[in-house]
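Inverse folding, one chain.
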């Protein structure tokens, strides 16, 4: 089986157009891969480029050069150069992303926010809602909240809706940006078990976890992003 995610020789700098075009190099020569069934943890100090790396892989940030290769239906796609339509197609079928904060959609009930990625893949509404409910129950979201839009939910409640939405599909690659940041110990443990289930199912996971206990529990290995810091290599 092909490696689900391969990052090869990726370089990225930000150009500050409103600040006389100042260039801020963030990462240089990033190469690593994530195999099926492992959870690679991005490590390194604050500001080293962990979130930027996740955003590049998901296609939110462009890369200056290099390749981001994902395997989809036995085809290898380079997300670094793919057109937007292909990026969206890969997100729908292969590449999931749990951001730190839920982007709330006005007037859409929590259960439908969670069910939506399944609907986008052609699952029937009743089936999708049933699976969404099962995940929300697993994450201890009170049932009386399921039919409400999450805009007024607490930080931890919104994060649990976001996690349920990110975990509901069977994407082969899952990117996690501090999925447990706003959670209490009980729900952190639920997320740890959900990550373990994904590993067992052969999903390739790549994540940022600031909570050491979570990192220790789920991480197959740690990838220190300082290795790719242009500032360090210039020192
Ligand atoms: N959109 C952007 N425009 C300009 N600079 C950015 C942008 N996004 C990130 N940066 C810069 O890139 C560097 C890396 O930021 P990033 O958020 O990736 O770090 P991080 O390792 O995830 O940090 P933390 O652990 O604090 O979340 C920082 O210096 C940041 O200021």
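Residues assigned per position:
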């Amino acid at each position: 089986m092909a490696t689900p995610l391969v990052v090869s020789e990726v370089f990225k700098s930000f150009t500050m157009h409103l600040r006389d075009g100042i260039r801020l190099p963030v990462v240089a020569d990033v190469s690593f891969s994530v195999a099926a069934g492992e959870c690679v943890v991005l490590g390194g100090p604050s500001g080293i480029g962990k979130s930027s790396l996740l955003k590049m892989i998901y296609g939110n940030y462009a890369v200056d050069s290099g390749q981001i290769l994902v395997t989809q239906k036995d085809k290898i796609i380079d997300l670094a150069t793919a057109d937007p339509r292909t990026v969206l197609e890969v997100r729908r079928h292969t590449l999931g992303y749990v951001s730190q904060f839920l982007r709330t959609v006005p007037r859409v009930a929590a259960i439908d926010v969670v069910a939506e990625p399944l609907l986008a893949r052609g699952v029937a509404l009743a089936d999708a809602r049933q699976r969404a409910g099962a995940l929300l129950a697993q994450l201890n979201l009170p049932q009386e909240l399921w039919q409400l839009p999450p805009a007024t939910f607490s930080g931890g409640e919104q994060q649990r809706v976001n996690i349920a939405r990110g975990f509901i599909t069977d994407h082969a690659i899952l990117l996690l940006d501090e999925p447990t940041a706003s959670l209490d110990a009980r729900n952190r443990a639920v997320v740890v078990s959900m990550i373990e289930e994904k590993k067992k199912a052969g999903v390739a996971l790549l994540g940022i976890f600031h909570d050491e206990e979570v990192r220790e529990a789920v991480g197959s290995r740690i990838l220190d992003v300082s290795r790719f810091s242009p500032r360090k290599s210039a020192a």
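The longest helix spans residues 185-200. The radius of gyration is 18 Å.
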